[in-house]
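Exercise 3.2. Students should predict the tertiary structure of the chain below and write it as structure tokens, then compare their answer with the key that follows.

Predict this chain's 3D structure.
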Amino acid sequence: MYEPKEKQFKPRKFLKLAEKLIDDGKYEEPARIRTVVGRAYYASHLFVKERMKQAGWRIPDDHTVHNFVIDELLDNEISNIGSMLDKVYEKRRIADYYMDTPLKLAEGKLCVQIAQEIIDFIEQFPLKKK
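Answer key:
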């Protein structure tokens, strides 16, 4: 079941949560960092994915969507944004799947910053399908 556009969840809310959580000492730091990295990635990924749909891309509806979005950005004359999203994606994979790899607070903060930069750029320079 689909919600009307005005009621759909806004990916920016993930970023707002990440911004608040990163310095919230009420939560254990390793769990906090891993959660922040994931929310920062999904904020930027989902924002870009929605903008790509609006610009006419046909987006896969399966696990390939992550690499699809990154690859399309890399191939679409804004490879810096694709590289930035890829960097946050790799940190998200570490955060979610590699518990033996520690993440530092600075890495969490950097992911939040990069996600914000991606969203700001895409808002300022709308995507155009080749």
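Discussion points: Residues 10-124 form a domain with the Four Helix Bundle (Hemerythrin (Met), subunit A) fold (CATH 1.20.120.330). The mean pLDDT is 93.
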